[in-house]
Amino acid sequence: MSLLEVSGLNVSYGGIKAVRGIDLEVAAGELVCLIGANGAGKTTTLKALARLLPAHGKILYQGKSIAQTPVFDLVRQGIALVPEGRGIFGRLSVEENLLMGAYSRRDTQAIRHDLEKNYQLFPRLFERKTQQAGTLSGGEQQMLAIGRALMSRPRLLLLDEPSMGLAPLMVNKIFETIRAISAEGVTILLVEQNAKLALEASHRAYVMESGTICLSGESATLLNDPQVRHAYLGE
Ligand SMILES: Nc1ncnc2c1ncn2[C@@H]1O[C@H](COP(=O)(O)OP(=O)(O)O)[C@@H](O)[C@H]1O
Ligand SMILES: [Mg+2]
């Protein structure tokens, strides 16, 4: 069964339709990417799934509609968004930021355990746990944003452009981490402009264009599709 099943999703800003009746599905344990040019509607889609924007259409999570579920309950049910631009709290320390990710939880012991797990996944965050988050490098802030999302123990992780603005080495590091999180069994919907890396890392992919899904399939197949290579991989 699909962990996430979306059909006929529509999202508008005022009179402007940014997402026009898209369908998509993510099975439990899958790493699915959503790629497409700037302005295609990827962020809008993720925000609608995280219920940060009003939307029309069907959104089923674990087989149940979440169309009316408040954001707080969504987090408790295991949906976590790592927003574009990361959204960390610059004045708070690294550790305080991580603990913010556990705000919906009351299981103190397990929160400590997850904090340690995060520090194993991101040794850099451990080294900098008392540092003000605003003073971290871009890549470290991205790690922190992902780490914070993991602190809610997500079943479904929504990642918006994790590689944006990062140096190549850091991009590789972030993608390694995404694969590791996926290998642990977390279901991931990854939005990326770096189509090549996203297709290489994911099982399946959707390609978005002007608010619609214009192409979808196995990532390995799309990687070898001449049309995709020309339009999205710059070949
Ligand atoms: N807050 C907003 N108000 C009005 N239009 C918006 C807003 N955010 C995004 N848009 C428009 O919606 C479309 C999709 O944007 P977005 O989802 O951010 O695309 P992507 O993430 O694929 O780059 C674009 O045309 C963009 O200009
Ligand atoms: Mg975007």
Structure description:
The protein has 235 residues and is α/β, with parallel strands linked by helices. It has ten helices and ten strands. The strands form two sheets. It has a six-stranded mixed sheet, with helices on both faces. Helix 3 packs parallel to helix 6 (138-150). The longest helix is centred in the C-terminal third of the chain and has 16 residues, at 168-183. The termini are far apart. The mean pLDDT is 95. It binds adenosine-5'-diphosphate and magnesium ion. The site of adenosine-5'-diphosphate (ADP) has 11 residues, from strand 2 and helix 1.
Sheet with the most strands, sense and barrel status: 6 strands, mixed
Rough shape? globular
Strand order of the largest sheet: 6-7-8-3-9-10
Q: What's the CATH architecture name?
A: 3-Layer(aba) Sandwich
Mean pLDDT over all positions = 95
Name the structural class: alpha/beta
Let me know the number of strands: 10
Bound molecules: adenosine-5'-diphosphate, magnesium ion
- Residue stretches low in confidence (pLDDT < 50, at least 5 long) are none
Number of continuous helical runs: 10
CATH superfamily: P-loop containing nucleotide triphosphate hydrolases
**What is the total number of structural domains?**
1
Helix content: 25-40%
Task: Write the CATH fold name.
Answer: Rossmann fold
Strand content: 25-35%
CATH class: Alpha Beta
Mind telling me the C-alpha Rg?
17 Å
Relevant terms:
235 residues; alpha/beta; Rossmann fold; 6-stranded mixed β-sheet; 4-stranded antiparallel β-sheet; 10 strands; binds adenosine-5'-diphosphate; binds magnesium ion
